[in-house]
Design a protein that fits this description.
The structure holds three protein chains of three kinds. Chain A is built from seven helices and ten strands. By secondary structure, chain A is of the alpha+beta class. In chain A, the strands form four sheets. Chain A has a four-stranded mixed β-sheet with strand order 8-1-10-9, with helices on one face. By secondary structure, chain B is α/β, with parallel strands linked by helices. Chain B is built from 28 helices and 29 strands. Chain B has a seven-stranded mixed β-sheet with strand order 5-4-17-16-15-6-7. A six-stranded mixed β-sheet of chain B has the order 23-25-24-29-22-26. Chain B has a four-stranded parallel β-sheet with strand order 11-10-9-13. The chains are: A alpha+beta, B alpha/beta, C mainly alpha. Bound molecules: ligand MGD (2 copies), iron/sulfur cluster (SF4) (5 copies) and molybdenum atom.
Chain lengths: 228, 785, 393
């Protein structure tokens, strides 16, 4: 069984935020409003933060794209009473809207601010679309129209793409990648199997120094960053 | 009630449809009543909402979730990337790059995705609108009345015919912003056939100084393309290569490539007064005193020549005027002296110069912010010369000479077809006159010329894809000028600020609904053409610019009508016609991209279009111009690269700060910012959206007694705007930065009233040589609101 | 007196007005619940940064009050301290009602309350490592035990009552420590994360529970013209002093642990950030210092008023303590990356007090009071007045 993970190369990343938009585009994630930004109620499955150190002229700002870290030891899963968020065998932490009771415990427990609550019902837009796979027989967290206000949501590592790709026998990580990997103009992201010793990820991690965010919490994120 | 109708539609049932229809009836009646009885401005809203053919969102692509991918091209900035749009049940639902495009290797910038929100902007207009309120002005509701296309076109054609008949065809002004190449070609033909020299593009706001600087050196009046696959050192003079320097998508893609996908990691040094996203990602950020880039470039040249780090073969064989140039540099630009001008330590200049000359191949890149100044042409010239010094001209990793595609030529207009009077008249932007000697277009001269009525009055104007009373410095003057135009027609998909001044608005399609062909802003070097084809049917009654022109030409008998015969008959036909020399139609439709064979380097024999057929460190083109016009090279119009002190608008003692506008990556170049996806993450470095704070460093703020988030007025000679303070450490002391793109006043739930527009307080000034509008030399003061 | 209990008559005008008011508030409860349920929690002050707001604050507060009340009741039924007998039934009854209130709070806070049943699908559909799931066992058991306990008391089965009472007290301790663990085990929230959080919760529960008993006793006895033995109140006051001292030590140790090591940003935020006042004024000022002064000062220590004021202060202060945990605990931006995080992700959260959320909270409080007042009317909870005809026993 593969263990999906990702590497983000901060030297290649240009801070363009195509990833932020591509995720919303792919997953019908609602957009926010000035009001919601002020009240911090926007929904992001993927966000980008900027972190500054120093004073003029020795200032240094680092922009860091942050999806859900897909923790190997996900505290959100530990605290979820309803099994609404759970880790799949391939390591992806998914969110199952139909089970979520909206207790928001996972939001409190997630160290990365990766989770968002639906404070209102999702507005349908002309460009919203059903996600692949269109297979309605499997009672999965999918597809989109099922999510309503009152549930928590987060990045799913685009598992729908991966599942569909596997079904079609495609190469995951090369032909089939999460939406934001596809959209990343600088090719700063590599998606693949962390356990594959020959894989692209293993090579990258061996070649340069890398870190994970808030590693001290031992959540074992499966998203790695290559330092500049 | 109207909103209600809209929400009903979401529920997608026929009964609800009926209900909506009757609601709109009501609204229509109500609208008429209100306008006739009281004249209260319910107009815009009522009409726009009413005529909105609701795209029903809820048919959520259920039947065929797989959909199909249609190849077309983006028009959210001048890169015009090849894109593919996923269409499911006749709805566009996703956009990605077209992998066949070499410009950016099939990648697009974040704005490419926002095309979906452009196409489905809920506040688009779908019917021609006629003004019923005679008074014009900002905030004055035009009281739009929807009319039929037939009526609208006839009205415009009527006016045009009158102009023709009275032989005043030059009194027509056509303003055009960013357009597809095919539409540009059609517009050009229209103007030519009609006989007006006044087809004015927005390029006078763009890179005219940069182009002129380059033209002085190698005779090419264009911006440069760069071989980013092979370069090992990039020295950017204010070019925000990760945010705005076009073609953006190419820079974004190639950044990843030149940093980590080749054996040597390219070093990037950014010289800029603002710690931009680009600066943060660069290996080194060198803050510089604003407007002194030319001095720095020349000091670098000084070191390169002094320490003999030159590319001698190139200089000896393919350049002219080097000795004189060397003298000028040696006399005036010793790093020790330049250090005091630029505020950059001497050692740093030395080190930079050595790195630049020794890490090969290297590129020196002028940004708009270094060149959109009075004297900017010379700055561009000075920076461009650095590339020649190290031999980065038409070499791998150096400057590329962008090829243009060989479209099938449009038949030439025969003399008699041209309306006689208009031809031969000067254009009202005064380009090529004494005022702007080398200019091709001086966009920002237009308002003054209109207001002065000189050299002749403008009786009618058509504005296409432009929004100059918001995007050009001196917005107030633009508004006055627009008011003065007796008959103004605006063509656009939505009612942006300029449309507010129109007598007639024609609803045009967005780029996702129309035919065209496009090629990029210079980038990849080798020629490439992309198709533009409708991915969905035009929504409502909107019509593409191309088709509008064809149908308009139909109604103007004589030259114009004839000029539009035999070139395809419609915008689609025109695309077929023009590209038939390149690629079979079916293949073009499917692939979306045509590209020519790989780029050839070192074509020095036929490269330089200068009198000496060489790269000129002293411009013989300028010399020739003055020989021709019988004038001596005057002070201020020199024929060599040099630095001159900035000309400021505003006295330093009264206006102590320098205002820097900049274009964040998520500013769309389409006159609108009504796109939540862009708005909510508008300023990544500041971590905020939906806003345009004024940024300054903490010392500047302290000296002004300001704190983070304080509401302030920013005042220049020309006006004042209000916003809040954001302390950003990476701003040069004494400089304040405001992002442009916000401050919309006309329409849009997601943009109106958000942020402020720096152009309202920037004065009108030029680089006289090129007609380039200056953006960065306005001084301001700031105080608590 | 002593062994006899009675109902109140509920004939006074004041009573009727009060009941009507509470009835209206019940309507408000339903309404404000429906508003949030239908419109979404956007009508509240919660956000992705501060996901838990007023309702969760009230929820843990009420659990504390309930546990406190039950533990106090044990003084009478388990430890057989005669002096506490008049308030024994009252304490148990309050324990039940406060728990009902707490459950109301937590249920309406759910985004999808109709799915709450999932919490109770032990081991099958829910995840037993979640403290919410574990606590749902505690809570159900707790309510059941309390009902049995009260029934045994009414039936006069003293022996059994004392056994069940013992179990119930232990259970109440577990309930409240479990609730504390909801916070104390969350490692990424510095203000929450603490092994003594469950004990601190328990102590705070005792202080607030005792105080509420003092206040309720004085108020109901006064309003229903029953005589109060001053000694009862004073002894509760002495008890209170002790527990407050323990609470103080707990809070001190907790904050010291967080403060001592250099990664003290969160505590510094708590002390000086935008919600400093919840901590200093409410939790420390009203919850600890003021009551300690009132309870130890020779003038106020032995006056009814002094003790009642101290109790009131504790009741408010402990609410502040809960709020100082829930709100600043999450408002403090998580240190996603070393340095100053720009924009909202680096700014402390704000929690606006919104009408619908406040109404909902207040109306649930009123609902509990309504149940209480009705309880007094129909159940023999208060000791009979001296001149009252004896009824039952
Ligand atoms: N402060 C400051 N101001 C600047 C600059 C700066 O750096 N700082 N930069 C300047 C520069 S470089 C430029 S080029 C100008 C740009 O300025 P303009 O050329 O005025 O361009 P936009 O404002 O983008 O306006 C584009 C118009 O096209 C219409 N439009 C948009 N999309 C479509 C479409 O798909 N189809 C059709 N038919 N119409 C469409 C819109 O309604 C809008 O009216 O701004 C300038 N303004
Ligand atoms: N996102 C986005 N990209 C665009 C466009 C857009 O609207 N949005 N429009 C396209 C068009 S039409 C054009 S013309 C180009 C323009 O693109 P660029 O040539 O990149 O010009 P700007 O973005 O205006 O300015 C570049 C940077 O220079 C900084 N700067 C300001 N003053 C000075 C100075 O005195 N010295 C130095 N060294 N730096 C200074 C500014 O703060 C800014 O960060 O962008 C294109 N790309
Ligand atoms: S899309 Fe890629 S380059 Fe752009 S911000 Fe995201 S990770 Fe960085
Ligand atoms: S909000 Fe939903 S996903 Fe999160 S812990 Fe509660 S039930 Fe689980
Ligand atoms: S990042 Fe947060 S949401 Fe994602 S797996 Fe880890 S704890 Fe869960
Ligand atoms: S992996 Fe997919 S769902 Fe997760 S942030 Fe990226 S695009 Fe969004
Ligand atoms: S670079 Fe310009 S043309 Fe290309 S995708 Fe971005 S906005 Fe569109
Ligand atoms: Mo431009």
């Amino acid at each position: 069984m593969p263990r999906w993970g990702m590497v983000i190369d901060l030297d290649k990343c240009v801070g363009c935020q195509a990833c932020v938009i591509a995720c919303k585009e792919e997953n019908n994630v609602p957009h926010g409003s000035p009001e919601e930004q002020r009240l911090r109620r926007e929904i992001y499955w993927h966000k980008m933060i900027a972190v500054t150190k120093g004073k003029y002229p020795h200032v240094k700002t680092e922009v860091i794209p942050m999806p859900c870290m897909q923790c190997d030891h996900p505290p959100c899963v530990t605290v979820c009473p309803a099994k609404a968020t759970f880790k799949r065998e391939d390591g992806i932490v998914v969110q199952y809207y139909r089970r979520c009771i909206g207790c928001k415990y996972c939001m409190v427990a997630c160290p990365y601010g990766a989770r968002s609550f639906n404070y209102k019902s999702q507005e349908a837009k002309p460009y919203h679309h059903q996600d692949e796979p269109p297979d309605r027989k499997s009672w999965g967290p999918w597809p989109f129209p099922v999510r309503t206000q009152g549930v928590v949501e987060k990045c799913t590592f685009c598992f729908h793409r991966i599942d569909q790709g596997l079904k079609e026998g495609k190469k995951i990580g090369i032909v089939v990648v999460p939406a934001f990997v596809e959209a990343c103009p600088s090719h700063a992201r590599v998606f693949g199997d962390l356990d594959d010793a020959q894989g692209e990820i293993a090579k990258l991690l061996a070649s340069r120094s890398s870190f994970r965010i808030r590693e001290e919490l031992a959540t074992q994120p499966k998203v790695f960053y290559l330092s500049r | 009630m109207l909103m209600g109708a809209k929400e009903e539609m979401v529920n997608h049932s026929s009964r609800k449809d009926e209900k909506k229809n009757c609601d709109s009836h009501l609204s229509r009646r109500k609208f008429l009543k209100i306008t006739t009885l009281s004249g209260i401005s319910f107009g815009t809203i009522g009409i726009v909402k009413k005529s909105h053919p609701q795209p029903s969102p809820h048919s959520l692509a259920l039947r065929n979730p797989k959909g199909r991918w249609v190849a077309t091209s983006c028009l959210n900035c001048s890169a015009r990337c090849g894109i593919k749009v996923k269409v499911v049940d006749e709805k566009a639902v996703q956009i990605k790059g077209n992998p066949l495009s070499s410009l950016s290797e099939g990648q697009i910038c974040p704005r490419g995705h926002i095309g979906l929100q452009v196409l489905y902007d809920p506040e688009r207009i779908f019917s021609p609108l006629k003004r019923t309120q005679p008074k014009k002005g900002r905030g004055v509701s035009p009281q739009w009345k929807p009319i039929s296309w037939d009526q609208a076109l006839e009205e415009i054609a009527g006016k045009l015919r009158t102009l023709c008949e009275t032989s005043c065809s030059n009194h027509l002004l056509i303003l055009s912003g960013l357009n597809s190449r095919s539409h540009e070609d059609l517009l050009f033909r229209f103007a030519e056939a009609f006989g007006t020299p006044n087809l004015i593009s927005g390029e006078g706001l763009d890179h005219e100084a940069e182009k002129t600087g380059r033209w002085m050196a190698d005779g090419h009046f264009d911006v440069c393309a760069y071989d980013l696959d092979h370069t090992n050192f990039i020295l950017s003079f204010g070019a925000d290569i990760l945010e705005s320097t076009p073609p953006v998508s190419r820079w974004l893609r190639k950044w990843g490539k030149f940093r980590r996908e080749k054996p040597i990691r390219t070093k990037v040094v950014t010289v800029q007064a603002r710690y931009s996203l680009t600066a943060s990602k660069s290996d080194e950020w060198i803050p510089i005193e604003p407007g002194t880039e030319a001095a720095l470039a020349l000091a670098i040249a000084y070191v390169i020549i002094k320490e003999d780090l030159l590319d001698h073969p190139f200089i000896n064989k393919w350049s002219s005027g080097f000795e004189q140039y060397r003298e000028i540099v040696f006399q005036n630009y010793a790093p020790e002296r330049v250090s005091t001008i630029t505020g950059i330590p001497t050692e740093k200049i030395y080190r930079l110069a050595r790195e630049f000359a020794q890490i090969k191949p290297a590129l020196a890149i002028p940004g708009k912010s270094a060149t959109a100044w009075p004297g900017g042409s010379y700055t561009a010239y000075a920076i461009y010369c650095l590339n020649a010094l190290v031999g980065s001209i038409d070499t791998p990793g150096g400057i590329l000479y962008q090829e243009s595609p060989d479209y099938r030529p449009i038949p030439r207009l025969i003399g008699s077809e041209i309306t006689p009077k208009g031809q031969g008249q000067p254009s009202i932007d005064l380009h090529g006159t004494e005022k702007f000697p080398f200019a091709h277009v001086a966009t920002n001269q237009i308002p003054q010329s209109i207001l002065d009525g000189k050299p002749y009055p403008i009786e009618m104007a058509i504005g296409i894809n432009c929004n100059f009373n918001m995007t050009a410095p001196g917005t107030g003057q633009w508004e006055e000028a627009l008011k003065k135009i007796p008959f103004y027609v605006h063509m656009a998909p939505y009612l942006s600020e300029m449309a507010e001044f129109a007598d007639l608005v024609l609803p045009s399609t967005t780029y996702l609904e129309e035919w065209g062909y496009d090629h990029s802003f210079p980038g990849a070097g080798s020629a490439e053409v992309r198709i533009k084809q409708p991915v969905v049917h035009p929504i409502g009654n909107s019509k593409s610019i191309g088709d509008t022109l064809f149908q308009l030409a139909e109604r103007i008998p004589g030259g114009v009508k004839k000029a539009f015969e035999e070139i395809g008959g419609s915008s689609e036909g025109f695309v077929r016609f023009r590209t038939s020399s390149l690629i079979p139609w079916e293949e073009f439709l499917k692939k979306g991209v045509w590209g020519r064979a790989p780029y050839q380097y070192r074509k020095y024999e036929r490269l330089f279009k200068t009198p000496s057929k060489k790269f000129e460190f002293i411009s013989e083109n300028v010399q020739a111009f003055y020989n021709k016009s019988g004038k001596k090279v005057r002070e201020g119009i020199a024929n060599f690269p040099h630095y001159s002190k900035a000309r400021w608008l505003g006295e330093e003692n009264q206006y102590p700060l320098i205002l820097f506008p900049y274009q964040p990556l998520l500013t769309l170049e389409n006159g609108s910012q009504n796109y939540p996806w862009a708005q909510e993450i508008f300023l990544p470095m500041q971590g905020v959206g939906w806003a345009t704070p004024v940024e300054m460093n903490s010392e500047t703020a302290k000296s002004l007694n300001l704190r983070d988030k304080d509401e302030v007025w920013i005042e220049s000679q020309f006006g004042k705007i209000r916003t809040y303070v954001k302390i950003s450490e990476g701003v040069y002391p004494g400089v304040v930065c405001i992002p442009s793109g916000q401050g919309h006043t006309s329409y849009g739930k997601w943009q109106k009233g958000i942020g402020c527009n720096p152009n309202e307080i920037i004065g009108i000034d030029f680089d006289m040589l090129s007609g380039q509008s200056a953006f960065y030399n306005t001084r301001v003061k700031i105080y608590k609101a | 007196m002593g062994k006899h209990y009675s109902t109140i008559e509920g004939k006074s005008k004041g009573y009727k007005i009060f009941i009507t008011f509470l009835g209206i508030m019940f309507g408000v409860f339903i309404l404000s619940f429906l508003v949030a349920y239908l419109k979404g929690q956007k009508v509240w002050g919660v956000s992705n940064i501060i996901p838990w707001g007023q309702l969760i604050t009230f929820y843990i507060y009420f659990i504390g009050l309930s546990a406190g009340a039950i533990i106090i009741s044990s003084l009478s039924y388990v430890f057989k301290r005669e002096i506490y007998e008049p308030i024994g039934r009252l304490a148990v009854f309050m324990g039940i009602l406060l728990m009902v209130g707490a459950m109301c709070f937590v249920m309406v806070d759910l985004g999808r309350p109709e799915k709450a049943w999932r919490l109770f699908m032990y081991f099958y559909l829910n995840n037993m490592s979640s403290l919410f799931a574990i606590n749902s066992i505690f809570y159900t058991g707790y309510i059941t035990l309390m009902l049995i306990y009260l029934w045994l008391i009414f039936e006069g089965k003293k022996k059994m009552a004392s056994i069940i009472g013992t179990v119930d007290v232990l259970w109440a301790i577990a309930v409240h420590m479990g609730t504390g663990a909801i916070f104390g085990l969350i490692g990424n929230r510095e203000i929450f994360f603490s092994p003594i959080k469950p004990f601190e919760f328990l102590t705070a529960a005792l202080t607030s529970g005792t105080s509420l008993i003092i206040l309720t006793t004085v108020v109901t006895f006064k309003l229903t013209q029953r005589a109060i033995k001053e000694e009862l109140i004073f002894s509760l006051g002495r008890l209170l002093t002790g527990i407050i001292l323990i609470l103080f030590i707990m809070v001190f140790v907790d904050k010291l642990t967080h403060f001592y090591f250099p990664n003290r940003e969160a505590v510094i935020y708590l002390f000086t950030g935008n919600y400093w006042w919840i901590f200093w004024i409410f939790q420390i000022g009203l919850g600890i210092i003021l009551p300690l002064i009132l309870l130890t000062h020779p003038r106020t220590r032995r006056s009814m008023k002094g003790v009642v004021y101290a109790a009131t202060s504790v009741i408010i202060g402990v609410f502040g303590e809960r709020a100082a945990l829930v709100i600043p605990g999450t408002a403090h931006p998580q240190p996603l990356f070393p340095g100053k995080i720009e924009g909202p992700w680096g700014e402390p959260g704000i929690f606006p007090i919104t009408p619908w959320e406040t109404l909902l909270s207040l109306s649930i409080v009123s609902f509990v009071i309504l149940l209480f007042v009705l309880g007094l009317r129909y159940l023999e909870i208060l000791p009979a007045r001296e001149n009252e005809p004896i009824s039952g026993g």
